[in-house]
Write a structure and sequence with these properties.
By secondary structure, this protein is mainly α. 81% of the residues lie in helices and 0% in strands. It contains three helices and no strands. Helix 2 runs antiparallel to helix 3.
């Protein structure tokens, strides 16, 4: 499951102030957030796989299996949509005149 990203108005205002002051180090924040999201996707896939193996062997709960597979599918769809948006943004940047 992908960990939610919590943001408060005070946190956003502080981030804007750091960017304006030139002291922002958001690159590491973005990379760690992306790493956590990808790890959550991998964990969802592993959980779906183990639930599926349990269901096939007859020891798993069908509801838990369907839920785990649906979460893994949603994580994969989210990752594909994100990838598509990144590729689209790259193509837009490449089309910009210099």
């Amino acid at each position: 499951m992908v960990a939610p990203i919590a943001m408060s108005p005070a946190g956003a205002a502080g981030a804007y102030a750091r960017v304006q002051a030139g002291t922002a180090s958001d690159a590491s924040g973005f990379s760690s957030t992306l790493s956590r999201a990808l790890q959550g996707m991998v964990d969802a896939g592993k959980q779906a796989e183990s639930q599926s193996v349990g269901a096939i062997s007859g020891t798993g709960n069908l509801t838990d299996t369907v839920t785990a597979v649906a979460r893994a599918e949603l994580s994969l769809q989210t990752a594909v949509a994100l990838r598509d948006r990144v590729v689209q943004a790259y193509q837009e940047i490449m089309r910009m005149p210099i």
